[in-house]
Amino acid sequence: MTAYVIPAHDIVGLPVAGTSDLFPVRRVYCVGRNYAGHAREMGSDPTREPPFFFSKPGDAQAVVPAAPNRVLELPYPPLTNNLHYECELVVALGKGGANISVEDAASHIFGYAVGFDMTRRDLQFKMRDVGRPWEIGKAFDYSAPIGLITRAEDAGDINHAAIQLDVDGVTKQSSHISELIWSISETIANLSTYFTLAPGDLIFSGTPEGVGAVVRGNVLEGKVAGLSPITVKLV
Ligand code: MN
Fold first, then answer.
1. 44 pLDDT exceeds 90?
2. Which residues lie below 8 Å from residue 225, measured CB to CB, with a gap of 6+?
3. Which domains are delineated in the chain?
4. In terms of CB atoms within 10 Å, which of 44, 102, 127, 145 comes out highest?
5. Average pLDDT for residues 72-76, to the nearest whole number?
6. How far apart are CA 173 and CA 205, in angstroms?
7. 7 CA → ligand 1 middle, Å
8. With bands split at pLDDT 50, 70 and 90, how would you rate the model's confidence at 48?
9. Taking every annotated instance into account, which residue ranges of this chain make up the domain Fumarylacetoacetase-like C-terminal (predicted)?
10. Residue 86 Cα, ligand 1 centroid: separation in angstroms?
11. Measured in angstroms, how far is the CA atom of residue 206 from the centroid of ligand 1?
12. Can you tell me the distance from the alpha carbon of 172 to that of 164, in angstroms, rounded to the nearest whole number?
């Protein structure tokens, strides 16, 4: 029998609401600047230029399941003095494909979750300003806490849902999914022209305005109406 020469790594499984089943994570794609207010606060024009994408690792070193009604303790990452939260609607694909049409995109969605695109903003800007990849600012250890996945049919009218993030009980981000520059279906369609998508892929759909720095001890609560909220404490 053929064996792996080192132990094979595990797939991250995100719990699915209302079941004891897990959603197996494959890739983690993220959309940059997909709310006008956030594009402005990042110093760019919120024009409807095509969406752009970056990735985070899909392994357990980056993706951390956040159980409901529990505080997930997340280590403050090294080499930053400016760690930012970005609360986002995460789309979980149940079906893959390339060149998916906008009209057909919704049928590829398994469900949705709340996630934080944690960002070492100082490193991201340092790389951005010299035209280098964002990896060290975006794709670090524990950079993608994600809550329970709610099946699409149980998530209500997600395209108009409220999205909110509080830090220590003070609301910092508050918007609606309807404010997305590129809708969920448009995002899936566009992303699938660059990459063949597959079941298990996650898409962080972008963050509203109001991002900011957090420090050890801060408690971050993220909510999207209709989905299970997540609570993260930086330690
Ligand atoms: Mn983001």
1. no
2. 156, 161, 162, 163
3. 13-168+175-234 (3.90.850.10)
4. 145
5. 98
6. 15
7. 32
8. confident
9. 28-231
10. 6
11. 5
12. 8
